[in-house]
Amino acid sequence: MQGISIRGVSQAFGAAGDARRVVALEDATLDIPAGELVCLIGPSGCGKSSLLDIIAGLAKPVAGSVTIDGEPVRGPLPKRVGFVFQENALFPWLSVYDNIVAGLTFQGVPKDERRGRADEALAAVGLEAFRNHYPRQLSGGMKQRAQLARALSLQTEILLMDEPFAALDEQTRLVLGEDLSVQLAKTRKTIVFVTHSLVEAVFLADRIAVFTARPGRIKTILTVDEPHPRAPGFMTSAKLTGLRNALYELLHDEVRRAMETGAGV
Ligand SMILES: Nc1ncnc2c1ncn2[C@@H]1O[C@H](COP(=O)(O)OP(=O)(O)O)[C@@H](O)[C@H]1O
Ligand SMILES: [Mg+2]
What we know:
By secondary structure, the chain is an alpha/beta fold. The protein has helices at 48-55, 96-106, 111-124, 140-153, 170-187, 198-204, 232-235, 238-260; strands at 3-13, 22-33, 37-41, 63-68, 71-72, 81-85, 158-162, 190-194, 207-211, 218-223. The radius of gyration is 18 Å and the shape is globular.
C-alpha cells in the first residue's frame, strides 16, 4: 500500500512487571492511504504523540509495526517524513528565511535549489513580507506559519503534525487550517495531525481516529466526506456541526474516564 500502514502497534514505558510501567498505546491498527489527512484525537495521555514518534522512526513500539509505502520503518526517514510540533522549534538566531534554508541544508538539498524552495514555501504560507524577521519579532501564528513553511520546503511526502496550532487563538488556528487544506489539495501530502480541537479535526480531516483513554486504543474512525480545499463555508455548515457533535459524544466519556483515573491531566 502507498501510504502509512500501522499494524497492531503498542507502546509502553518502564520495565515489564514494574508497577510504574505505563502502557501508553494498545494495539493500534490504521491504514492511511497516500494523500489522506488523518486526525488523531483523544484524551491527554492516550498515546497520540507516542504513535507519531513510532511512525517517524524516533521510537520503537513494544509490539506491532509501521510501514511506509510497504517498507518497514526502522529509523528516521528525514527525506520522506517531516514534522511540525506545537512548540516553536525555530532557531532564534536565524531569520525566517534562514530557518527554512537551514532545514534544506540539513536535508542535503543543493545550494542552488534552496532559495527557490524557501521562496515557494514562504509564499505558500503568506510570510513573504516577514522573511527577514527573527522568530522573536513574530506573533505565535506567524511562528507556526514559519514552521509550516520549513516543513513544506522539505517536500516530504508525509507530514506529522503534533498539535501544531494548539497554542494559537481560535481564529488564527482556523485560518491556518484553511491554508493547510489548500496545501493538501495542491500537493496531496499524507498528513497525520494530532489535535484536541473537535472543530479543527472535522474541518481538516478526511478521517478522524478517536482514541480511548489510556491505554489508548482506536475506538472509532469517523469519515469526513468533503473534498479539499475546504471552503470557509464548511466551517459553519450543518454537516460540520453534526460531525463535531458526533465526535463530542464519542470523546466525552473517554475524557471523563482519563480524568477520573488520573490517566490524563
Ligand atoms: N519517554 C517516556 N517515558 C515515560 N513515559 C512516557 C514517555 N513518553 C510518553 N510517556 C507516557 O505515555 C503516555 C502517553 O503519552 P503521549 O503519547 O505523550 O500521549 P498524548 O500525546 O496522547 O497526550 C503518558 O502517560 C506519558 O506520560
Ligand atoms: Mg501529545
